[in-house]
Amino acid sequence: MAQPNNDEHGRTGGSTGPVELTVDHFQATFDLAPDATFGIDRTGAIRFANKQVAGVFGYESEDLIGRRIEDLMPERFRSRHHEHMSRFYDRPYDRPMGGVSINLVALHKDGTEFAAEISLTSVDESMGFLVIVVVRDVTERKLLEQYLADQVGRLDAMVRVGEAMAKPGTFEMNVREALNVLIELSSADWAVVRIFDEAKNRWAAAIQVPGDSNPYDIGPREDSVLRRAWNLRRTVINNSLDQNSRLAKHFGLHAAIAIPLMVGDRPLGVMTIASREADHFTAELGGYLRVVARTMGPMIESAVLRERIEIERAMTSRADNFISTASHELRTPLTALVGFSELLITRTVDEESKLQFSKMMNEESRRLARIVDDMLDVSRIQSGRLPMVREALDLGETVDSVIANLKALVSEHQIVVEKPIVPHLVWGDRDRLQQVLWNLVENANKYSGAGTPIRVTVAADESRQVVTVSVTDEGQGIPEEKLESVFEPFTRLERDVKDRVRGTGLGLHIVRSILDAHEGKIDVESVLGEGSTFVFEVPFMADEEQLYQKEVA
Fold first, then answer.
1. Distance (Å, rounded) from C-alpha 471 to C-alpha 401?
2. Residue 210: helix, strand or coil by DSSP?
3. How far apart are CA 212 and CA 248, in angstroms?
4. ∠ Cα 118 120 124 (to 5°)
5. For all residues of the chain together, what is the average pLDDT?
6. Would you say 251 and 190 are in contact if contact means Cβ atoms under 8 Å apart?
7. What is the rounded distance in angstroms from the CA atom of residue 138 to the CA atom of residue 146?
8. Cβ contacts of residue 404 below 8 Å, gap of 6+?
9. Would you call 341 helix, strand, or coil by DSSP?
């Protein structure tokens, strides 16, 4: 075979066959191809390029002759390209378009990058080049593939949201799971659903992820994205939240989108999703989240109705039980009052008996007043109108005040108070927090034997920024399966059949509701036959600026 003879125009000559192939033959053939096509030699130099390179790369074909193929790829890929090509030369094989292809990024003449698909075919080096490279700009196809993948992912997310909302769990649990799906989908960090209760003309408890809901919050601020979305009945995006906003200040979030949850033309509530990253919510993402919100609105309405029916059934059952219990509890002091008063009216009694009857009547009157107060408190709690008069409080002093009044009433027990110095105040209602402690100590008195101590401890938890108060007894204890239900209304524990403890079963429910209103919480630990410990906590009082905002609110 004769050696190829390359002239300055890149022609390849030879006398190895009846047809003399030249670069011009390849040029004419590949000029008809729809993709940019190159011929490169073993050094990576371009020996020919067809006309389509102008449309794909922005170069005229003659401008590329003699340049290296690496010039058409971003600089970050160039260092390893020679190694890749050497491996291909050692073991050449075709990578045809439509078969096994390589997806890469190529470089346009103006410096912009575009998604490229590259196919390689080896040829006889006697032609003057060793590899034919075909490059296709697949930017539009990649965008379409990404769009389709996004749509599939979003449809899958919508299915997951629907499945979450349709689960047999509680409404709040289902909404939380749906919000977690949306956080994952939108690469956000926080989400909340707020429902407006038309019957009570107020915002219901926020369901937020992550974080615990507070059923006694005062609702969204007037200038929040959530309230604006509600008022305008349209999506509101704020990609640069004010640093003094609640989302930025308390959660470190910098961008948010709020979308009304609509059922037909009627607004049900608002879904807000937020991110720590500013400028997070694009118009495209906002459009998709609007579609999800449209599907969530009817789902949430159905879930709300379903839970309301279940709650009403449970409340009806509890109310029936409460009526029975309350009737008995009210009848007992009323019977005593009627009996003693009739004795005083119809019979002549000595002064000592009068005094004794008067004391008994006073005691039963106080008991009757407490039952009525508990019933009124529960009514206020359920309507969201439990009155609060807040001030800066020292919980240690509050404990001292309550224990001083209780010692005379709990004479069968020694009340032991452990109260180290707590250098933090709380922001709360003095009477309500005293009511919490009073109820807990009274419970300890009811459910523990005479002569056993009741321990009350006050402490500060610096790591969690809360003041804690614990009440410990050595009584009968609470079965493990009832540890949660003791805080539900109308729930009572019996010591035994013969020794029934008086009460309506409202005390611990009122305690938890008061602490919820203080952004606090209560837990209980118990061992049957050994006793129980109730621990409640109230956050440290905020700094002066936050205190001022609370006073204004």
1. 15
2. coil
3. 18
4. 155
5. 78
6. yes
7. 12
8. none
9. helix
* Residue 9, pLDDT above cutoff 60: no
State whether residue 323 is helix, strand or coil.
helix
Sign of the C-alpha dihedral, residues 142, 147, 148, 154? positive
Measured distance CA(80)–CA(282) in Å, rounded: 36
Q: For residue 408, what is the DSSP state?
A: T
Q: How confident is the model at residue 267 (pLDDT cuts 50, 70, 90)?
A: confident
306, pLDDT greater than 60? yes
pLDDT at 549: 43
Side-chain half-sphere of 47: how many Cα atoms within 13 Å?
A: 25
Angstrom distance (rounded) from CA 77 to CA 296: 46
C-alpha to C-alpha distance for 183 and 43, rounded to whole angstroms: 51
Which pLDDT score is estimated for 310? 67
252: left (phi over 0), alpha (psi -120 to 50) or beta: left
Tokens matching residue 427: 């922001």
- Of the candidates 214, 211, 213, 237, which has an alpha carbon nearest to the alpha carbon of residue 225? 237
pLDDT tens digits, 481-501: 888 778 876 666 654 433 445
Confidence of residue 47 (pLDDT cuts 50, 70, 90): confident
Residue scoring higher pLDDT (339 or 315)? 339
Which residues make Cβ contacts (< 8 Å) with residue 436, sequence separation at least 6? 511, 514, 515, 536
Give, in order, the Cα–Cα distances in Å from 269 to each of 211, 262, 298. Answer: 19, 7, 11
Query: What is the Rg, in whole angstroms, of the alpha carbon atoms belonging to the chain?
Result: 39
User: What's the number of CA atoms in the CB half-sphere (13 Å) around residue 140?
Assistant: 3
Q: What percent of the chain has pLDDT over 70?
A: 77
Cα 38 from Cα 49, distance rounded (Å): 5
User: 280 in the Ramachandran plot: left (φ > 0), alpha (ψ -120 to 50) or beta?
Assistant: alpha
What does the pLDDT read at residue 93? 67
d(CA 325, CA 327): 5
- The H or E element spanning position 47 is strand 46-49
Q: How many CB atoms sit inside 10 A of residue 519's CB? A: 17
Is the pLDDT at 44 greater than 80, yes or no? yes
Which two three-digit tokens encode residue 95?
A: 């990578």
DSSP code, position 45: B
Token pair listed for 339: 């009996």
